[in-house]
Amino acid sequence: MALRPLRVDWVATPPPGAYPHRRLGAPPRPYAGPPSYPVPPRWGFPLLAWRWPTSLATADERPADAVDHVQRLSRTASHALGLAALTALWAAGSEIWRYVLLLLSRYGALSATTVGVSDAMVVSSAVVALVAGVMALVFTLLWLRRARNAAASAAGYAPSRSDTEVLVGLVVPGVNLVVPGSVLAELEHAALRQPVTARPRPSRLLRWWWGLWVGTGLVTAFTAAWSFRSSVQAMADGVVLHAVADLLAAATAVVTAVVVRRVTTLLLPVDPAAIRRMRVVDVKDAPPPVLRPTRPSGSPR
User: Fold this and answer.
1) How far apart are CA 200 and CA 206, in angstroms?
2) How far apart are CA 171 and CA 295, in angstroms?
3) Disulfide engineering: 179 pairs with which of 122, 129, 169, 194, CB 3.0-4.6 Å?
4) Phi then psi for 206, rounded to 5 degrees?
5) Residue 48 CB: number of other CB atoms within 10 A?
């Protein structure tokens, strides 16, 4: 008797629970459109780009006097000081032109238009230079406050003067010729991470700035006192004094911007790309190194 092969049909059926059971006789619900809510839903993701939780520091974690804030204020103060220097040069040029007109008036009368343009330039340049100087002073003081706090955090000791004492030292006449130099010397000392017991020694750049600051203050005070003289020669000399004071103010603004950039650079962390890499080429007069004993080839490791 011959055996025939058994034919088997495989039928795939879904497992129990794969589809929800419908009640018998219940018709399917028709599509009624997207869901609607009586109020805006409060669930979901915030309207922010996706980021890791620790990639951005919050306002509480970010230091109030970070070095990046000092760097941003240094750029703003440098631009304001540059604008003050340009306006001071404009004022000096206007005063020099007025003095040239005074020399030309010795040989003949000048036109009313030329004299009017000269007076307008002197007045307008003086007002613009005053506004630019005040603006540069404000931004420089803001930078100074941030830089002093950042330098104190880096050096590990607090400044010797408070912010109020520094502000008073800049306002009181006579004292404002001495206090700014000592404050910047202490700031440079802390930015260099020098110990608190060492005496601050200002750099050559800071000494130049200090001399320009004192010279500008003395010449400005002398020019203001000279303006009360009413003689013709005194008025002509006053024009020269105003030009010299404007030129000194422009030089002081430029050197101040350089000092701000230098102190900010000292506060910044060291850039690894700026460090010159060194390699050992030769070693002289060194003792011979201790060599490992010779190991036979068949010995276990």
Assistant:
1) 12
2) 82
3) 169
4) -70, -35
5) 7
Contact 216, 180 (CB under 8 A): no
pLDDT digits (tens, 9 = 90+) for 179-206: 888 999 999 988 888 888 888 888 999 9
Q: What would the pLDDT profile of 6-29 be if each residue is shown by its tens digit? A: 666 777 777 776 666 666 666 777
Cα distances (Å, whole numbers) of residue 58 to 8, 233, 269: 69, 65, 22
Instruction: Tell me the one-letter amino acid at 30.
Output: P
Per-residue pLDDT reduced to its tens digit, 90-115: 999 999 998 888 888 878 777 888 88
Mean pLDDT of 22-43: 72
Give the residue carrying structure tokens 């000399």. Answer: 237
254 CB burial (10 A radius; 0-12, 13-18, 19+): buried
Distances (CA, A) of 61 to 115, 143, 154, 281: 61, 22, 18, 46
Q: How far apart are CA 46 and CA 76, in angstroms?
A: 35
CA distance 263 to 188: 6
**Residue 160 main-chain phi, psi, to 5 deg:** -75, -25
Structure tokens at 92: 């000096």
Name the one residue in this structure whose structure tokens are 């005040």. 134
